[in-house]
Amino acid sequence: MKIVVDTSIWSLALRREQDRLSHTQQSSVTRLKDLIRDDKVVLLGPVRQELLSGIRSVAVFERLRQELQNFSDEDIEIEDYEEAARCSNRCRARGVAATAIDILICAFAVRRNYSLFADDNDFAKYADVLNLNLYSA
Question: In what order do the strands lie in the sheet with 115-117?
Answer without folding.
Answer: 73-74, 41-44, 3-5, 115-117, 133-135
